[in-house]
Amino acid sequence: MNSRIQQLVAEVTPTVTRLRREIHHHPELGMQEFKTSQLIQRELNRIGIPFRAPVANTGVVGLIQGKEPGPCVALRADMDALPIQETTGLPFASQVEGICHACGHDAHTAMLLGAAEVLWQLRSELAGTIKLLFQPAEECNPTGGMPAMIADGILESPPIDAAIGLHVDASLTTGTIGYRIGALSASSDRFYITITGKAAHGSAPEAGIDAIVTAAQVIMAVQTIVSRKIRALDSAVLTIGTIKGGDRYNVIAETVTMEGTCRTHNPLVTELIPQLLEQTIKGICEASGCSYKFDFIKGYPSLICDERITLLVRDGLSQSFAPEKLFNILEPRMGGEDFAFLAQRVPSTFLRIGCTPEGVEKPVPAHNGGFNPDENCFAYGVTALVQGALALLKGLH
Questions:
Q1: Which of 31, 73, 123, 382 has the fewest CB atoms nearer than 10 Å to its CB?
Q2: What pLDDT does residue 268 have?
Q3: Which residues are tagged catalytic?
Q4: Domains, the chain, ranges and CATH?
Q5: Quick check: 314 and 178 in contact, CB under 8 A?
Q6: Is pLDDT of 242 > 90?
Q7: Which contiguous run of DSSP H or E holds residue 389?
């Protein structure tokens, strides 16, 4: 079986590369992936795989039924691009001003289409079902596209027993696959703060209440929440990313607005942070005479990789990857990933696909206009999806 899989992967890899370039050339933002959805439907029709579309506006769900009954394994790829100007200079670079696939979702979609074609050709040997999830709007925090897919019924007909997601990773060398048991990504929540004081002439601060000075105190005090209120063994990040206030150089600012993000891996810490934030803001504002408004918006939860599912997939990948190519990710990441919503409902795992050629010392990271994953990684991604799916069908039977 392994040699046959390698042969089939080799046959579909040129198509995967071509499709990735086509998707890359025509990027679309979250919930606007209409051309990408049409491309996916075109390819599934070409292969012969039945599908349902649209799901959650632009998503597509394909279904590969094996010859024998068995579990249902979902494979997920995200489809959306980012509002970033591309700087790669590639011949197939984005044709859309200010939008590009700077996070590799074009590669994810193409690799899942490649895996779908391989698994379709193996369907007579499968005991169970493969559900193909082409998901919109992964970048649309705090809602993301996965909750909309779930609301549109992807967990049913048939029910999903386990799921695999993947992401290209510039920190890993091409040919390596990263996996982790437990928390892989962080929760990704947002908060908004408005501080209101009293305007006055800049020469008479005693006549006003300076919202900027109060905001500065809030910013500094917020930094002590992680260092003094959170257990040292629990990772957390609090970042205030925007601050806007004041109208003129010689006027005491009446209003300051701030926006920030909170990242944690422990759900208990995630629940604690909003209380600590408001407690800090309230105390400083009361002391300074300001009023405040505080809003905390829950976003993506932490992505938790199930131990049993992860080990089954890892053992399945060992059929095609040498031990040194399977990389145990020792530390979780602080980025967010909306696959976490599915992992809350279904035991899941998430793979990181190395996409930097060996010898490159400073790879361009994702979310950069110059990001361009090594096309040689596509065959490894397809193989990982295929072998992972087969391992779960067998291990969960």
A1: 123
A2: 92
A3: 80, 138
A4: 2-185+303-395 (3.40.630.10), 188-300 (3.30.70.360)
A5: no
A6: yes
A7: helix 377-395
Q: 135 is written with which tokens?
A: 């998901």
Residue 60, token pair as written in the block: 């597509």
Bridge partners for 352 per DSSP: 167, 178
Residue pair 166/195 in contact by the 8 Å Cβ criterion: no
Region 2-12 average pLDDT: 95
Nearest by Cα to 58 from 43, 79, 75, 81? 79
Split at pLDDT 50, 70, 90, the class of 397 is confident
Strand, helix or coil for residue 345: helix
Q: 48: which DSSP letter?
A: T
Residue closest to 214 by CA, chosen among 318, 289, 162: 289
Q: What is the Cα–Cα distance from 123 to 67, expressed in whole angstroms?
A: 6
Q: What per-residue confidence (pLDDT) applies to 1? A: 77
179 half-sphere exposure, CB direction, 13 A CA radius: 29
CA distance 357 to 31: 32
Please give the Cα distance from 369 to 393 (Å, whole number).
38
Instruction: Tell me the whole-structure pTM to 2 decimals.
Output: 0.94
d(Cα 15, Cα 149) in Å, to the nearest integer? Answer: 27
- Are 255 and 196 in contact by the 8 Å Cβ rule? The answer is yes
Which residue from 303, 257, 29, 21 is spatially nearest to 140, judged by alpha carbons?
Answer: 29
Beta-ladder partners of 127 = 68
Residue 302 identity: S
